[in-house]
Amino acid sequence: MLSEQAIERLSERLVSRIEELNVFMIRKLANQIVDIGTLTPTQLREVFQSIKYGNNLTEIINKIAEITDKNVKDIYDIFEEVAKKNQVYAKQFYEYRNIDFIPYESNIQLQSLVKGLAEITVNNYINISKTSAFAFLDKSGNIQYSPLSDIYQKITDEAIASIATGRETFQQNMKRAMKELSKQGIQNISYANGYHRRTDSSVRMNIKDGVRTLQNTLQEQFGREFGADGFEVVHHKNPAPDHSSNLEDGWHDIDGMQFSIEEFNLINSKLNRQVSTLNCYHHYIPIILGVSEPIYTKEELECDKKANLKGFEFEGQHYTNYEGTQLQRQLETKIRQYKDMQISSKEMVAIDNDYTDIYIYQEKITQLTRKYNKLCKVSGLPSRVESLKVDGYKKVKKS
């Protein structure tokens, strides 16, 4: 089995490529805008036939395809790695029952099951990619969304139109447009209800949910094969309140508990968020009741629960440890957002030689990073440095 930290590390491999694409798109757009700002009206008319214009668009489309291909391949590799680790864990129960154990490399049925589950996550990832878009402000000041393959042309066309109304208007319009693009980042859009979130966050959730589903499905399969009669919901520190508090009908916490299969199914059906769904960090493993010792003792579970509720004080407010992890995620997203904006501003400085925004965003990054480090120190929660990284970001100091 894989811990939540291990699953997190696996997902970061794919997420980092989404951030790489985000920065690549921002830089390409900014460079094109800067180039347009140097053109004369006569030269502007020739832009539509420009080889560079067409090549840049082709390069962007190819970059999207390249990252999609790499991430799809990695999903299959990740699922195979997770399957092997889960099967090794289950081996002890086959031996206890004196049941033949078929290793993954020779287990065609298991390989087929893993491939099928991987394909579900791959299809979800591809759907995320297809509905990814950049946010931008239209002429009325309303936020609109444009597919990645279209935004380059939209911004370029707007830049050309802005030149006609004067250099000052061009600078204002383009800095506004790029500020909005970099602020929002690449977004995953549900066109049915308008819901949106950063694509890197959507991909992270997609992969982690997929891996949890894989682990649960495999463990259920192994349990049927070796004759399990119960499940243990594997404990993790600082669970969400809906999975660590007593339910109204008298059932106890699910975190770290062992249940018969019937009990688990009944309890799970009563949860608004079933185990391992909707970003739940729990997963469950099959057990043999009366034989399988709980992974954590009652004393360890109670100690972790008390520590979560005790929490910590931060900037005049009390947080449970769980609430602290949510604040961490918010700060991580904000820091990445401002790093994107700083990168965009550095690329755009050539149109007016104004460094003001760069220094403003750098100060925000510094302040938020200090707050994040202080939060980790005060709370004792582990820092996720990898979640703060943005490809191409370099700190800027005032000259």
3D structure, described in words:
Among the domains are: 1-186, no CATH class; 311-399, no CATH class. The chain contains eleven helices and nine strands. The chain has helices at 4-37, 41-47, 51-97, 108-130, 148-164, 167-184, 199-226, 261-270, 298-310, 321-348, 356-379, and strands spanning 132-137, 143-147, 186-189, 196-198, 230-233, 258-260, 284-287, 312-314, 317-319. The strands form three sheets. It has a four-stranded antiparallel beta sheet. Strands 6-5-7 form a three-stranded antiparallel beta sheet. The longest helix is centred in the N-terminal third of the chain and has 47 residues, at 51-97. The N and C termini lie far apart (51 Å). 34% of the residues are buried.
Short description:
The chain has 399 residues and is of the alpha+beta class. It has helices spanning 4-37, 41-47, 51-97, 108-130, 148-164, 167-184, 199-226, 261-270, 298-310, 321-348, 356-379; strands at 132-137, 143-147, 186-189, 196-198, 230-233, 258-260, 284-287, 312-314, 317-319.
